[in-house]
Amino acid sequence: MNRTRLQRIATGLLPFIVAACAVAGWAQTASAREDDRARLVKAEAMFAERCKKSGEFIHRTAENVEGVFLMKIRPKEINYGDQFKMDDPYGNDSGGETYIKTFFSGFYKRSSPPPSGYRYVDATDPKDGERYRYTGRIDQPWLRDKRYGEWVREFVLDKVSAPGEAPRYGVTYDDISTRDEREYWIAGSSLKVIDLKTNEVMAERIGYMMDRGQGNTNGGRSPWLLAARNACPAFRSASGIPPIQTDQTRMFVVKVLHPNKEQ
User: Fold this and answer.
1) Same domain, residue pair 81 and 15
2) Residue 11: in which H helix or E strand, if any?
3) What is the pTM of this model?
4) Are 3 and 125 members of one domain?
5) Inside any domain, residue 44
6) More confident residue, 29 or 18
């Protein structure tokens, strides 16, 4: 068979080869779509089961509480999409010193009336392992730096070595996800209020959330941030506004440890 005839045969077969490849590609795409759907169905079933045990469980409350011990400080870094980092993405709140500030009424200077808060907060500094006591105040920087306007007000923390024993009541959080749950982009969270004198868990909030995109990051998508739209208990939200996770810790804690109204 000469080369010319082979070329004619190959040319004649080319459309059929292209069509076969297209069919194979479509079949693979359809299979992937089917796999994605099946995966989401399983994830939603798992999530629904977890939600059955979620909620706020308050066993006892305390009155006239002046201060609390934050047994863990939330990190400054936000976990946008690290699937297996067990850092409690459901409990995502303000991080670092801002997390401490959220427990003071003065931090919410634009709110009227401001939400409840405490007179002081104790926390362990991870850098030296020492416990410190924080109090808050409104600072007026223009008094020492005339570049600021007289209307500028800032809420700042004062930090000193903690005197005596830690506050009686502690607040802590944990990631309770399992590897299997994280495989399906489900994150579990435990937030506890503890009587450190008796080691009694006074209250606990159990929460779960799931990314319906199953980790899809197309277009800059952030799986864990979007998972907050599919959470139990649900987060605060309003029409057209994404769910709000910040300040969630304080809002739960003040339901259990009622601040002294005189502070």
Assistant:
1) no
2) helix 3-51
3) 0.84
4) no
5) no
6) 29
Residues 6+ apart with CB under 8 A from 167: 66, 67, 68, 69, 120, 122, 196
Give the CA-trace dihedral at 253, 256, 257, 258, to 10 degrees.
110
Q: Do 170 and 196 meet the contact criterion of CB atoms below 8 Å apart? A: yes
Look up the domain containing 9 and give its range: 1-39
Residue type, 178: T
Is residue 29 pLDDT above 90, yes or no?
A: no
Query: How far from the centroid of its chain's Cα atoms is residue 259's Cα?
Result: 25
Q: For residues 193-212, give the mean pLDDT.
A: 98
Q: What share of the chain is helix, strand, coil (3-state, %, to 5)?
A: 30, 30, 40
155 closest CA partner among 199, 111, 189, 193: 111
Structure tokens at 143: 């008094």
Cα–Cα distance measured from residue 31 to residue 234, given in angstroms and rounded to the nearest whole number: 33
What phi, psi does 118 have (nearest 5°)? -110, 165
Rounded to an integer, what distance in angstroms lies between the CA atom of residue 170 and that of residue 192?
Answer: 8
pLDDT digits (tens, 9 = 90+) for 220-229: 999 999 999 9
Domain count, the chain: 2
- Do residue 124 and residue 24 come from a single domain? no
pLDDT confidence of 17, banded at 50, 70, 90?
A: very low
Give the closest residue to 212 by CA, choosing from 46, 18, 66. Answer: 46
32 and 62 part of one domain: no
Higher-confidence position of 184 and 4: 184
Residue linked to tokens 């600072």: 139
